[in-house]
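To illustrate the input format used throughout this study, we show a single complete record. The first block contains the structure-token representation of the backbone; no residue identities are included at this stage. The design step must infer an amino acid for every position from geometry alone.
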């Protein structure tokens, strides 16, 4: 067995690995420190501090593994340059905590989902222009709504959004839903994963 990358006796809020699988980023239990570790031997490579007044919540690597995307407890989005350790606030995305960022394979788009009780929507951002493209509203429970999340981005400029037992595609250029939708599953969808070609989806359905 490998040496543990992180001591489980020390709680942490979130963790992510880069596209190479060689590095891991960990947000500590209070959101003020991000530690970078080698997954080969568990060695700590560096530590990055959050700006004053910021408590990070969720973390993801950029597509090229040269930066981190982070959300905080106030619903804001930040990026961290791993070479310089500079922390830049992108925008106030939501007024409440949001999910772990989902980054497209080409690094051009990012998806976030609100975790708040009052505003359950998903937002898609164009990272090159630093602008929000569109938001996907939460479906009401009586209409098949469930926990809303942006799963991933396809090879052909669409975002895959899961809500309870349904999947939908949203065109990144127009912000409109692409038909047809995947049929609603009465007991929900447990897992969604892309094949390497980015064209085929694997679904694990609840029963």
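Output of the design step:
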């Amino acid at each position: 067995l490998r040496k543990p990358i992180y001591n489980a006796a020390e709680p942490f809020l979130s963790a992510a690995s880069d596209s190479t699988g060689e590095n891991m980023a960990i947000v500590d239990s209070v959101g003020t420190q991000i530690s970078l570790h080698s997954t080969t031997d568990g060695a700590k490579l560096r530590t990055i501090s959050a700006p004053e007044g910021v408590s990070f919540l969720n973390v993801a690597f950029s597509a090229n593994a040269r930066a981190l995307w982070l959300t905080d407890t106030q619903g804001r989005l930040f990026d961290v340059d791993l070479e310089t350790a500079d922390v830049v606030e992108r925008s106030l995305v939501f007024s409440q905590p949001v999910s772990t960022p989902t980054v497209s394979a080409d690094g051009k788009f990012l998806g976030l989902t609100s975790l708040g009780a009052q505003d359950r929507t998903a937002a898609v951002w164009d990272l090159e222009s630093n602008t929000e493209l569109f938001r996907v509203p939460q479906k009401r429970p009586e209409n098949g709504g469930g926990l809303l999340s942006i799963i991933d981005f396809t090879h052909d400029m669409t975002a895959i959004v899961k809500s309870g037992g349904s999947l939908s595609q949203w065109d990144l250029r127009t912000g409109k839903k692409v038909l047809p939708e995947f049929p609603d599953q009465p007991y929900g969808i447990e897992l969604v994963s892309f094949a390497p070609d980015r064209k085929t989806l694997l679904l694990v359905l609840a029963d």
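Structural context for interpreting the output: Residues 158 and 172 are 5 Å apart (CA to CA). The mean pLDDT is 81.
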